[in-house]
Amino acid sequence: MIRTVLGIDLASAKWSSVGSASIEFDDQASAFTRVVAGAITWPADPVRPTPDALADAIDAFARREGVCAVSLDGPQGWRDPATPEAMGGVGRRCEYECRTQGKTGAYPRTFPGTQRKWIELSIDVFASLLGRPGVALADPARDPETQDGYVVLECFPTSAWRSSGLAALPGKSRRPDLKPYWNSLRRAYRLPDASVSSHDDLQAVVAALTAAAAAGGPAVVDMKGVQGTVLLDHDGSRRRVEGYIWDVRPLSRVEDDQDERTG
């Protein structure tokens, strides 16, 4: 059975900076069969993307293409205000463990403060998607299959590069040559060739790999953080806090580790 997952590299400034990639894999053969970087055609709109507009586009693609899991590069919630002060970091547990550049503090604080707009957009995209029929937050304790829908999860591509045993793709501002990073990713996960022309879409491919692992595809889940929950605020509003960042490791790396132990 061929299954499809979707990765999204979120951006708040403009539609063209949002990366997307779909990956197909064969359950029976335990192999990746297709990679499409730039899978979603975003609106040619000069207006900044809104959470609902992003969620609409993601949801429409996921349902049309039969996607079983969607991974978003961006936070799903805020730091739990009950987190003991003795714990390291100023953000969520998963952000501390993944060494994310930005940190999501207890509402409404972000570190740095300049990331607040992007962080709030990401949290609102999660909320919008999770409010739709058949959409659920991925949970390692539950079957990833959903009826007439898909699961959503959070990732941090830089951490996923590291957990894959690969050099992380440098930031877009450094304008790195994408080819060696794409080639290293292809070799590690035995991916079919694809045309990857943008930094955002390459990060989305990495995001899609975490979705594949969460969906039981030919990769290994490597998670950080604690389970998310929803708190009831004093004004009666509901606020999502904490949550896992899903990392991924290639099967080949696990097989090599097993060979070393038994050799």
By CATH, the topology is: Nucleotidyltransferase, domain 5
Name of the CATH superfamily? Ribonuclease H-like superfamily/Ribonuclease H
H/E topology pattern: EEEHEHEEHEEHHHEEH
Overall number of structural domains: 1
Kindly report the average pLDDT value.
93
Can you count the beta strands? 10
Strand content: 25-35%
Which sheet architecture does the biggest sheet show?
6 strands, mixed
Order of strands in the sheet with the most strands? 3-2-1-4-8-7
The radius of gyration is 18 Å
User: Helix segment count?
Assistant: 7
Which structural traits does this protein have?
two-stranded antiparallel ribbon; disordered C terminus; six-stranded mixed beta sheet; Nucleotidyltransferase, domain 5; 263 residues
Structural features, described:
With 263 residues, the chain is an alpha/beta fold. It has a single domain, classed as Nucleotidyltransferase, domain 5 (2-Layer Sandwich), CATH 3.30.420.10. The protein contains 7 helices and 10 strands. It has helices spanning 51-64, 93-98, 116-130, 157-163, 178-189, 199-214, 251-262, and strands at 2-9, 19-26, 31-37, 67-73, 103-104, 110-111, 135-137, 150-155, 219-232, 238-250. The strands form 3 sheets. It has a 6-stranded mixed β-sheet. It is globular.
Give a topology summary.
Elements lengths: L1 E8 L9 E8 L4 E7 L13 H14 L2 E7 L19 H6 L4 E2 L5 E2 L4 H15 L4 E3 L12 E6 L1 H7 L14 H12 L9 H16 L4 E14 L5 E13 H12 L1
Parallel strand pairs: 1-4, 4-8, 7-8
Antiparallel strand pairs: 1-2, 2-3, 5-6, 9-10
Helix pairs in contact: 1-3, 4-6
